[in-house]
Amino acid sequence: MKRLLLGLTAAAIAGAGAVTAQGTGPFKMEIMARQGIMAYRALQLGVLGGMAKGEIAYDAGAAQKAADNLAASAAIDESMLWPKGSDTTANPDSEALPKIWEDGSDVGERHKVLADAAAAMQAAAGKDLDSLKAAMGPVGEACGGCHKTYRKAD
Ligand code: HEC
Asked: Ligand 1 centroid vs 119 CA: distance in angstroms?
């Protein structure tokens, strides 16, 4: 089970695309800013996931820093960054699916799931490696779960 969850996390990270600055659409800044926040999350998750998988030696201070950063990234007010019309159909630089803005979208709840998982990671990461590993699955699922529904597959 743990291995499966770690695999999900790895898949979320592997989906990372480069932040491109060539966009010309009306929502260029908004799209760049939200992609930058996502890339920042992936960077912190890379540290935590690397330790969970044993690819990086566990270091309580570094783990705590990454978890603090992840939680901080989830607390940023993104209300300006997701204007209607900034989806991938009109903005090829974006991978945001129009579903985000459709009736019945649960994207807000999914963001809350990430914030909760990041808070749990924040409480666990600096304790010991086992605590970090246990908190990893929910974080990976929070990223991957939202991407599966609301982000265009590569
Ligand atoms: C509430 C939904 C949601 C959650 C939670 C979420 N993402 Fe995303 N993510 C998206 C969407 C939508 C995009 C596409 C944004 C765009 O291209 O405009 C995206 C894009 C990305 C990208 C690509 C950025 C780029 O440069 O184009 C990365 C990397 C990423 N997310 C990582 C993460 C990680 C890591 C987590 C968890 C710690 C996470 N995301 C959580 C919705 C989410």
From this structure: 18
pLDDT score of 25: 72
Share of the chain above pLDDT 70, in %: 84
Q: Which of 129, 144, 141 is nearest to 50 (CA)?
A: 129
Who lines ligand 1 at CB under 6 A?
12, 16-17, 19, 31, 34-35, 38-39, 41-42, 45, 94-96, 107, 110-111, 114, 139, 142-143, 146-147, 150-151
Q: For 131, what's the count of Cα atoms within 13 Å in the CB-facing half-sphere? A: 14
Residue 112: CB atoms within 10 Å: 13
Give the pLDDT of residue 154: 78
Are the C-beta atoms of 100 and 107 separated by less than 8 Å? Answer: yes
Provide mean pLDDT across the span 94-114. Answer: 97
Model pLDDT, residue 43: 98
Tell which one of 116, 151, 152 to mutate to probe ligand 1, the residue whose CB is within 8 A of the most ligand atoms: 151
Mean pLDDT computed over 11-17? 47
Mean pLDDT within 98-108:
97
86-111 burial, b if ≥16 CB within 10 A, otherwise e?
Answer: bbbeebebbbbbeebbeeeeebeebe
